[in-house]
Specification:
mainly alpha, 3-stranded antiparallel beta sheet, SYPL1 protein, Synaptophysin/porin, 3 strands, single chain, 238 residues
């Protein structure tokens, strides 16, 4: 089908018609393109750090930080050693806990693919709308992709939404109880701060909005298919 559609586009010739963008099908596609960018940026562009205050016997209190970012392989984020000698050599290779890269990468990869597909779809809508309307295979292909994308947006958002609270826990105050170096004699640790993750909450919202948009897009594309036309004729027949 993809080969057939590509050949059809080449033979049809380019005919620009930007009025399609004012129609529901084209306007929704623009929104999907924009929302995919926001979903990608709010999750894929995140950077943060967790800060602790470490007190070692006979040493001035020092802060240590562990920087983390997308794709949230927290087990590779290491706290800097405050003063290994002053802490009697008890502070060694302290990392955050957990690896949430699969959830984050699934979400971001989908956003990137949707971004590219929306560009391709807009090129077809604007430049080859006459072919899209005349060839029944175009709307059917668009319908299949739209339904699959709506499903993937919902799944990836739910998976990412489940991982996000675990990321917050793994970078919050509870990590002190998991750090063996903080339990060494003469050493105490106090949680100072962690980068706010409100932008990651926003990414989940954009994921849900994308799922809703693509769900509505399924209906808009379905109305352009022969399936809808056949059902309309059947329902109108006596």
């Amino acid at each position: 089908w993809s080969w057939y559609l590509l050949v059809s586009l080449r033979m049809a010739g380019l005919s620009m018609d930007f009025s399609v963008l004012l129609e529901p099908l084209g306007f929704v596609k623009v929104l999907e393109w924009v929302f995919a960018i926001f979903a990608f940026a709010t999750c894929g562009g995140f950077q943060g750090e967790t800060t602790l205050l470490v007190s070692c016997e006979g040493v001035v209190n020092k802060t240590v930080t562990a920087a983390f970012a997308y794709p949230f392989r927290l087990n590779t984020a290491e706290f800097s050693a405050p003063d290994p000698e002053g802490c009697a050599g008890t502070w060694t290779d302290v990392h955050l806990m957990g690896n949430f890269s699969s959830s984050a990468q699934f979400f971001v990869a989908l956003a990137a693919l949707v971004f590219l597909y929306c560009i391709a779809a807009l090129v077809v809508y604007v430049g080859y709308n006459h072919v899209y309307q005349q060839n029944s295979k175009f709307p059917l292909t668009d319908l299949s992709i739209s339904a699959l994308t709506a499903f993937l947006w919902l799944v990836s958002t739910l998976v990412w939404a489940k991982a996000l609270p675990e990321i917050k826990v793994s970078t919050g105050a509870s990590i002190i109880s998991e750090i063996k170096s903080c339990k060494a004699p003469g050493t105490t640790c106090h949680f100072v701060s962690v980068t706010r993750m409100g932008i990651l909450n926003v990414s989940v919202v954009f994921g849900l909005l994308n799922a809703a948009l693509w769900g509505g897009n399924v209906w808009l594309v379905y109305k352009d298919t022969k399936l809808h036309n056949q059902w309309s004729r059947i329902s109108e027949s006596p």
